Amino acid sequence: MKPFILAAVLVSGLTMAGSGKSYAQTDTTVKDSTVVKKKRTYSVTYTFNGGESEKKDSIAKAKGKKGRFVGGITFTRVDLGYSRLVDNGSFTLTPENDFLDYKGGKTSTFSFDILQMGYRFGSNFKIYVAGGFDWTHIRLRKDITIERNKQTLSYTEDPIHYSKNRFSSSYVHIPLNFEFRTDENDNGNRFYFVIGPEVGFLLNGKVKQISDENGKQKFKDDYHFQAFRYGGTVRIGYGGFGLFTKVYANDMFATAAQKGLTNMSFGVTFGLN
Fold first, then answer.
1. d(CA 76, CA 175)
2. Among 9, 113, 140, 270, which residue has the fewest nearby CB atoms (within 10 Å)?
């Protein structure tokens, strides 16, 4: 009888031990699974790290995702590059415009913004209108002088050689930009894509000449540059540096002989962020 009782107790004990082990393994598996799931949530990360600073950071990030108005005085989107004349869709000038033949490597553009106002919809998208100044400098090849106060865009051929013969225009420009940007990477930088229309209002035109005979000379007039111009701009960049292209849709001059003559520019841009 005793062997039977001992055997029964032994079997019962093994069974209970086996069951207890099974329960313990199941419980451990559930706990491990719970920890993994909790580690994937922000609340667990916050709990483990603790501290008031992290709570403030999370609040700041949450506020950063909300829309807000932005604007004020600035000095940004500084564009420096080259300009090209486009004569009815071609970079080759027609005989009527051949007097504007220019040195491509020295025909440049320069612009920047000093004001902006807009609305940021989140950390990745912003719409804003800006204001600034824009210069286009055409370095003429020929020894000519563009005449002032004429009914048409006319010129005189000069018997002297100009070491510099620059024909320029300056505008106040007002772009409307749609800015898309990525989240910051580990280095605190972003990729930017900016696109939008732009209008400009003529300030003045200018001829600057340098020669041995006459020294340095400057003449100002509107030179029949368009009083109002419009076009579009595209910028792509990373951090504070990028590339830009501007294309103007209307004619460069308000004269019949130069109908279809437009201009464009391209180059580098600074201060995107």
1. 13
2. 9
Domain count, the chain: 2
**Residues β-bridged to residue 196:** 233
What is the CATH number for 166? 2.40.160
Same domain? 100 vs 40: no
* Of 132, 272, 152, the residue nearest 222 (C-alpha): 152
Q: What's the predicted TM-score (pTM) here?
A: 0.75
pLDDT per residue as tens, the chain (273 positions)? 444 444 444 444 434 444 444 444 444 444 444 444 433 433 333 333 333 334 434 444 545 567 899 999 999 999 999 999 999 999 999 999 999 999 999 999 999 999 999 999 999 999 999 999 999 999 999 999 999 999 999 999 999 999 999 999 999 999 999 999 999 999 889 999 999 999 999 999 999 999 999 999 999 999 999 999 999 999 999 999 999 999 999 999 999 999 999 999 999 999 986
Please indicate, yes or no, whether residues 221 and 142 belong to a single structural domain of this protein: yes
Same domain, 78 and 51: no
Helix intervals (H) in the chain? 2-39, 42-49, 52-64
Side-chain-side CA neighbours of 78 within 13 Å: the count stands at 7
DSSP SS3 for 57? helix
Is 190 in the same domain as 138? yes
Residues 54 and 113 in one domain: no
Same domain for 34 and 74, yes or no, is: no
Q: Tokens 């972003």 correspond to what residue?
A: 190
User: How many angstroms separate the CA atoms of 78 and 234, rounded?
Assistant: 13
> How far is residue 262's CA from residue 248's CA, in Å, rounded to a whole number?
7
Alpha helices by DSSP H, listed for 40-113, are 42-49, 52-64
